[in-house]
Amino acid sequence: MFTNFITDNETPQDKRCIGCNNRFPLSIEYFRENANKSDGYSQICYECEVTYKATTSQKCIACGNVFPLSSQYWKKRKETKIGFVSECLVCMRAREKQWKTDNHERYLQKKRIWISKNIERVNESKLKYQINNKEKIALSYKSLKEKFPERYKSYQKRYADKNREKINEKHRLYYNNNKDKIAIRSSKYQKENAEKVRQNTRNWRKNNPEKYLSCLHRRRVLLSANQENYTKDDVYRIYELQDKKCLYCGIPMINDKALATKEVPFYTIDHYIPITKGGGNNAENIVLACGVCNSRKNNKLPEEFKTHMQTRYGITIKIRE
Questions:
Q1: How far is residue 141's CA from residue 135's CA, in Å, rounded to a whole number?
Q2: CATH of range 228-313; options 3.30.70, 2.160.10, 1.10.30, 2.60.40
């Protein structure tokens, strides 16, 4: 907007305005004070400064187009006289994009350095964006998964390897806060995909033989540590004492595996107090239960199992008095 020229030798008593090219006495009457300048005064006179600030449009030094002075077309910069840079946003972004392409490694290095120095600011910005753009992020991941499945899997694997502890902690927190919800969903899935679940269990045992054998060995060690063990006679006696029914749900049971059905299942032996929680392997700690109840009880204490059946399945079971 202002004329560029080579100034003449000026005396300390006057100064040439770069806006109107006129000379004025070097005083506060004609020039605004500016400590950043060598002579302590601005380069344009008051009259030109007022005219300059009243400007409503500006010509881009790159493309030559004239745009209104607003953040829609120009990047703000407080250091300039009018508060905007002299290059429009379109030209600025194109120049920056080209520079990043021509200096890719240098750009990445500068980016890494900046992020390391401003990590809290970056994390805060990311969190704010994630909160305000949940749907947009979900659609983006969905689109990436559909268009580039291999790339998506690779990204997930890299992230999981890098943030294993963070992911595990997140899962533990979610599980502890949503146990009932997870239990209902898990039960529904197991009923609808019984064969798939069994196959997955077989595959896990096949692919993780050492872990599976370790579990079996741990149980055998616990059992062998008990000095007293129940006998077959104890099992038959308990079967009669329980009136040939499951201790917990009361369903009739049969002692002949060949004749067992879904309605009248074969009995299973359950440790009333789990071995892993200090229970013995003697007759006093043995009860007979149907396969379903035994499986659901797992290593729970009787009171825990009763609460579990009530909250998860809405079933009231019996336990010893």
A1: 10
A2: 1.10.30
